[in-house]
Write a structure and sequence with these properties.
Layout: E1 7-12, E2 17-22, H1 28-32, E3 34-35, E4 51-55, E5 60-64, H2 67-77, E6 82-87, E7 91-96, E8 99-103, E9 107-111, E10 114-120, H3 129-144, E11 148-152
Parallel strand pairs: 10-11
Antiparallel strand pairs: 1-2, 1-3, 1-7, 4-5, 6-9, 7-8, 9-10
Length: 153
């Protein structure tokens, strides 16, 4: 991995994949051009409630994978400081404690004060050591850019 905070990969809206950009220098324009990193899946009988929401902020549909994500999305859409909402904006990879770790945040909100990286998990899952560990190293990477990290439960 390059540097302590690692790399970032983005799938652009035009389908191009930009891989392994240094996290510390990846441009905000690259994030603004991002499409969801993973394909949106919906199938009969799934255990969570996925969908798409028409966002006044983006003037397009924004996907969500749970009602908790939808609640955070609604909050962001009503916040006048938020100028753009990107779902699953990037894949972050970093060497942490001797292993390559990967994480895809739920949202990136481009705000007047800079980017806010949002991870959404039910409150009871925050005590899971794997979730807590992932959120901790992700928070450290986000804050190293002087961006804000927002964990929603």
């Amino acid at each position: 991995m390059d540097g302590p905070a690692g790399t970032l990969s983005v799938r652009r809206r035009d389908g191009e994949v930009v891989e392994d950009q240094l996290w510390s220098t990846a441009s905000l324009d690259l994030l603004r051009s991002a499409a969801p990193w993973q394909p949106f899946r919906w199938y009969r009988g799934q255990k969570h409630y996925s969908g798409s929401y028409w966002s006044a902020t983006t003037q397009s549909h924004v996907i969500y994978e749970s009602r908790l994500e939808l609640a955070r999305l609604l909050s962001a859409d009503c916040d006048s400081s938020v100028h753009d909402i990107v779902t699953q904006p990037f894949l972050l990879k970093a060497a942490v404690e001797g292993k390559v770790r990967k994480h895809i945040p739920d949202y990136c909100l481009n705000t007047e004060l800079g980017p806010v990286v949002v991870d959404v998990k039910p409150h009871q899952r925050l005590s899971n050591p794997v979730v807590a560990f992932t959120f901790a190293w992700t928070r450290q990477a986000v804050e190293s850019r002087r961006w804000r990290d927002d964990e929603v439960s």
